[in-house]
Amino acid sequence: MRILLVEDEQRLAENIVAALRETGLAVDHAANGEDGSHMAEQSVYDTIILDLMLPGKSGQSVLCDLRRKRVHTPVLILTAQEGKDSIIELLNAGADDYLSKPFDLGELIARTKALIRRGKGVADSRLTIADIEVDTIHQTVTRRGEIIDLSPTEYRILEYLTHRPRAVVSKRELLEHLYDFAWEHHSNVIEAHVSNLRRKLNAVGDEPLIATLRHRGYRLIGGGRRD
Amino acid sequence: MAVADVTSHSISITRRLVTTVLVLEFLSALILIFAVTFHEYRVELRGFDAMLTGTAQAMMGSVEDAEDVGDNLVLDLHDVRQLGKDAVYQVEENGGHVLGSSGNRAAIADILSSGEGFREITIDHRKYRLTILRAIRVIDPDSPSGGVKHNVTIVYGRPVGRVWHEVFEAIRFLVITAGLLLGVTAILMALLIRRYLSPVYQLADEANRINALNWQFDAPEVAKRTVELRPLARALEAALARVQLSFEQQKRFTSDAAHELKTDVAIVKSSLQLLSMKKRTADEYSRGLAISLDDFIRLETTVEKLLTLARLEQPPRIRDSRSTSFSCSIKKIIEEAVHQSSSFAQLKEIKVTTDLAEDAEIPLDRRDALLLCSNILVNAQQHSYKGGKVHISLSRQEDNVVLACRDWGEGIAEEDQPFLFDAFYRSDVSRSRKSGGTGLGLSICKAICTRVGGTIDISNHDGGGALVIVILPISKPPSVPNNFSLD
Q1: Neighbours of B393 (CB within 10 A)
Q2: Which of B249, B259, B8, B190 is nearest to A82 (CA)?
């Protein structure tokens, strides 16, 4: 999953980026409203964390522009302002959630993940595909009750595919959502990661789970159910 | 209780005006009554006298020849109609022969001998006004002897009360009219004044709408048109505009300060939480703690600056700050500030030059003076290009010392000019906190200068870059008492 953080406060941004990356999310950072607006319009982000007080273009106008341009990426607002009025105004303008500074880093991560799930139309933090269960909180995968030991990248690939159960996910889409700006460097290794993932999953059950569609990408087999 | 007290001691302009007008009107009425009484009395008296004279002359005409041998006289009053029942009179011939009389003869006899004219006497407890008329009646003037001459004296009088009766009638009419006028005036004035004062009530109603959330005050048009209310309406508008401005500045400052502090706390908190997200190596912990400490120091700096600003914005305890014991050499302070910032200057390769020929004692606490100078210097360095230069000079201007600090940087954008001294205002926001500025430096400088009656001003230099001009008063030499002896 790929997150966009728009925050002008350098030190705070560094900490948030580090924390999100440690939980296995890919994060891009914009230090001002204009850059943030421009990056968010790429629509490759699964959630946007937006500070309100930004130099140049304010967080609120970034949000309004996004919604006007029909970008529906979930937006979490960071604010140091008091007052229910501005919060109501922001939620009405299309924000999905908000956190007041100084916030709890753990809460920020949890709310971000919840927004990612909501953005994919999922409420539960545990995703089930056929006989596989993906716990997005603890980042564990079990098949028929047995824990499958995956590398962080393998886990992220599986989680992303689980979030889009019936869709064909292209290699580019996977790369865009799993890595930060530097995703192009990873394009050669993604096939290896998918191959490893497929091997590890098949070690427990024999039915193949990930189908490769030539020149199109990957698709989860048996992805009819998620609850 | 307090409200009751206020009401019982309250002053009503309406009541005062009505009372004043009524008192004046009453006094005028009194004066008028006195004048009219005097005039009326004189007119009536003249008429009365004319009547007396006329009657007396008619009586004189009634003195006739008795047609007897002695050529005597006789009084026949049948033709004198206006004689009056209350009249007193006596008609006397020379030698005391009384031709006719009425009333108290003894009383009249006293004045018979006096000259012609009018007299007032009291007869039987009643005041009478009498006229004395003397004439010579000649009987048979056609006779060869030239007739017989009789000296006739007539005293005729009537009660003077008639005159007063007329005067009192006139007074009565006046008093009733004046009383009615007073009543009508009082009612009309009360009504009209209330109406005329309606702009005051409208102004009060408008002023009553002001509260902490709504400072908007527009004096009603009618109040502004009323000459007497115009100064009050304008003063209210101006005062409220000032209060609103200061209130909003305060509010903005509080909100900005909260934002600043929350951000700094958020950084410290997130640094520590990031560190505790999972088990880390001793190296990672030690690096994380060092970073957290840096973050914490920044929070501390912000708090410290806020407290400094709060302290500086408190009014000084002694009114004339020049006479306080605080005093320091501006030259030494600048040298110290230059020394302090030399590492930053080296880092940016900025050359700092000084021209400190003039020195002066300024009435500032050493700490504040250093804060002022280093803030100005660091500000100039921060806004200089790498490899640029900063020049500081000192000069004297009468009782003031002028500190000028010039840089050759990008200068000040026109839109930033009005806000440069506002707390938390950062001209170049994208550079903002990264450069370490809290946005409080210039506010602190201004507070320090204002506190001692000095000024600070920033403008663009014609030759490029910004120019900061600080004007500070010079300390007065400590006064030594004349008769002070060391023994």
Answers
A1: 16
A2: B259
- List all residues 6 or more positions away from A104 whose beta carbon is below 8 Å from its beta carbon: B269, B273
d(CA B99, CA B229): 84
CB-CB contact of B466 with B412 (8 Å): yes
Q: Which residues pair with B146 in a beta bridge?
A: none
Strands A75-79 and A97-100: parallel
- B145's CB contacts (< 8 A; 6+ apart) are none
Minimum CA–CA partner of A58 in chain B: B429
| Sole residue written with tokens 């003063």 | B235
Q: Which residue has the tokens 């440690």?
A: A22
pLDDT digits (tens, 9 = 90+) for A5-52: 999 888 999 999 999 998 888 899 998 899 999 998 876 789 999 998
> Closest partner residue to A32 among B268, B273, B430, by Cβ?
B430
Question: In chain A, what is the greatest distance between 2 CA atoms, to the nearest angstrom?
Answer: 57
Rounded distance between C-alpha atoms, residue B424 and residue A35, angstroms? 24
Contact between residue A83 and residue A90 where contact means Cβ atoms under 8 Å apart: no
User: Tell me: the pLDDT tens digits for B65-121?
Assistant: 777 777 778 888 877 777 888 888 888 887 778 888 888 777 787 777 777 888 888
Confirm whether the ipTM is greater than 0.90.
no
Nearest to B298 by CA among B331, B271, B326, B329: B271
User: Starting at the edge strand that comes first in sequence, how are the strands of the sheet with A126-129 ordered?
Assistant: A126-129, A132-135, A140-143, A146-148
Residues A202 and B245: their CA atoms lie apart, in Å, by 72
What is the interface size between A and B, counted as CB pairs within 8 Å? 73
Are the CB atoms for A20 and A50 separated by under 8 Å? no
Cis ω before B231 (30° cut-off from 0): no
Which residues make Cβ contacts (< 8 Å) with residue B451, sequence separation at least 6?
Answer: B312, B316, B321, B368
Residue A12 and residue B270: Cβ atoms within 8 Å? yes
* B274/A53 CB distance under 8 A: no
- Kindly report the pTM of this predicted structure: 0.61
Peptide bond just before B473 cis, omega within 30 deg:
no
Q: Would an 8 Å CB–CB cutoff place A10 in contact with chain B?
A: yes
For chain B, the residue count is 487
The pLDDT assigned to A171 comes to 83
Q: How far is B308 from B329, CA to CA, in rounded Å? A: 22
Q: What angle do CA B105, B108, B109 make, to 5 degrees?
A: 80
Instruction: Compare CB distances from B259 to A11, A80, A105 and report the shortest one's residue.
Output: A80
Please report the DSSP string for B99-145 in residue order. EEEES-HHHHHHHHTS-SEEEEEEETTEEEEEEEEEEEEEE-TTSTT
A203 vs A156: CA distance, rounded Å: 19
